[in-house]
Amino acid sequence: MLLFQQSLPGLVLRMGAYRLPRLQLPTPNSQLPTPNSQLPTPNSQLPTPNSQLPLIYLDYNRTTPLAPSVLEAMQPFWMTHFMLPGQEHAQAQAVGESLEQARESVATMVGCESFEIVFTDGGTEANNLAVFGQLASPQQKGVGLGHVLISSLEHDSVIAAARQAESMGYEIETFPCEVDGVVDPERVKSMLRDNTRLVCLQLANPVLGTLQPVREVADICHNRGVRVHCDASQVFGKLPVEVTRLRVDTMSVSGHKFYGPKGSGAIYVRRGLRLSPIRFGEPREMGLRAGAENVPGCIGLGAAANLASRCSSEVADNFYEQTALFLNGLNSSLRKECVLLAEDSVRIANTLAIEMPCEASRIQKAARQLVFATAQSIEPADEMTRSLQAIGCSEAQIRRTIRISLGWTTSRDEVQRAASLLAEACDGILP
User: Aminotransferase class V domain location, by residue (predicted)?
Assistant: First the structure.
């Protein structure tokens, strides 16, 4: 079972630089996050309905709590340093310098130059800008509408943007993954056409955890003059990333996935690539956005990027140990066997998609102390359902599948208790 592989192209050990903002604002603690240190533990702070017992939060792929050091870095920009950058006075210029420091921090995490980072209001806007910005870019004008390929595993924001492009006249086609949850680059190659303009492939699937061969796909596409967008939202804070080795044209970042603020994000735009804006007004962010900058959000994203840059290798090793402990505890406690999906694939080590012996919704109701993900419906619009359908799961299998995703603060005790509670709830349902 491969949960982590350092040699996957574009995923390399890279400990990023760590800079102090020019305003001498609070910065992330120099110590790596541990279950007993600086990150909040929602597990111990949220009451369980109808119980005095604390929740055990196991849904970190959906969203993460804000790191205290990130909040601390953001606070001055709401009250005392509230000015907008770009104005002439010294205070505004100082805010602008801090914004650029945050941009450099994100660039360090991504592995690129700071001028290749554009701040957005989150991962959704970043994906929308990547799709529309490339299809409507000046470099594409005059070549006519064409063909776009997206993987069957993509996030809603990529799928919705592709559908909108389809309504404008583009032909959208979906390429499948294999039963192991990983895309075959040769399948993508066989589907490329002379008029293919863009290929979208995520780096890691949030449900299965599978890592995709983005570098191989990018090389194939670039040999045919086709651009590649990569949604990498699920990887930061879990594995080190080197975007220049992935060789993609654009890549999206979402702050709330790695202990940054909600409503913060960024897009990497390869040097020399020209995009068209999708929001209009007074131009900001190299002309790709309009409206006042969300300065606190950008500062928070930079602070979270500092944390993610400095702890990825240790976190990956810890996740490997924790998920193995969880699976061993679950299998030893259950009366009937559970199945780990995409078991033999290279995956982000914090993520487990597990087919249980009974319906996941019933387990969720019985194990109210646990927070984990299940399919909300059997419709393809549901992200979890869509990912499970992509690897050939039946409706019954989808209804029995749960997703466990661990965080930086998840402790061994919580992992062991969660496995025991999950098995107890499941066994109570089984005849």
Answer: 56-417
